[in-house]
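Q: What would this chain look like folded?
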Amino acid sequence: MEWGTLGAAGPVMTDAPLVTHLPIMLRPDPTRVVIRPFMPADDQAPYAQPDHSRAQRIADRVLGLAGPEVTGQLGHFTESLAEHHRDVSQVLMRRFHDVNGLVIDPGSIDDDRSLLIGAYFSEEYSFEAAALFNPSIVPHPDQTDVAQDAVRFILSLRGVGEGNISSVTFRTGLWSPGSLTIDRPSVQAISPRIKAIPGGAADDPGVRLLCEEAHDLSEVVIFPVTPAQRHGIEDLRLVRFVDDDGVATYLGTYTAFSGGGIRQEIMSTTDFATIDLTALRGPGTDNKGMALFPRKICGRYAMLGRQDHENIWLQMSDDLYAWDAGVKVVEPRFPWEFVQIGNCGSPIEIDEGWLVITHGVGAVRNYCIGACLLDKDDPSKLLARLAEPMIRPDPGDHDGYVPNVLYSCGAMVHQRTLLLPYAIADSFTTFASLPLDQLLSAMEWKMPTS
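A: My prediction, written as structure tokens:
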């Protein structure tokens, strides 16, 4: 086999940009806050009191307050929280029940003291104060009253807040070729109810987030709730997965960071009101950047990964939660990807095959965005790839946390046009679009050797 360009003597080279950059920029908003659980640090030796924990001492101090002081303290905190949150009393009472009998001694306590104890074990968290980046995009489950040439979508984003901790936040919008609008996010964010559920492994339970109180998807925030996620939920690669029976589920792989190590987990939901978070397992889950195909291939789940930090690998599995190492399908070939190549989200099914948006790392740790095409029936076969990136960092891409980095966690195709949300400098998010035919004609295609 050899490489050539479809309908041309060589690669399509032009000074004109391949993509159209869209005039929308999403930046972090530190005013967006969520109430999340707070737990004071345990006592340190030699100051530990085994029979009287720090949490219990806090509760005892609240229980020792006189009635008017409890009322005054509670009124101050609930009034402050009500500026940014609905149903504050309900959230604080729920938090009290989370700790009563588990973190502190069980007891029957009047409502005001219960609410105040709940407040002492809660905190406001600005979940996108520092950065809003690494987006992925999927069609919205509700396409009611949308024009035929348009599509309503869900955009997931990685928000970074206090302590450099990452969460997942959402936006919605409407796109038709030539027009893109992002809905204004709500000023509020809900605190989900959290329940343990059986996980991908019997000894590793998952977590269910109950978010039905949200009035708008932008009010839903997936923040770390387990020890494995303690320091961040990173880079959700969202995909609308359609099973063999035609039922659609929104799935998304992401990296859970404990502070000492990483692991791959998966999000699952049908309505974004109930969201399950579950660990993946197996030797194919040891690195970042796993991206699920939007349907089974030959009766099996399929995933792209980057197990060796350098190449794109294809993994197949009968079990959504268990993955082996797989086979290498795309290697660095051009200077802009000599350091490593990886996916920028789940493969997109088009008539010609599986379109994979890629990132390549080159000199001076520049991250560029490219693309390749895999065979539809056998995605271990690479059909075509871009010799030059779709988008390169420019001098303006120094203005952020990590200079010279462009990155995406998922794109979408509608009416033969690609919509690519992508992050700049690990700080903020913008968009580009490109007709599919133009993208495919710019690729080098693998051809039989004559």
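The mean pLDDT is 93.
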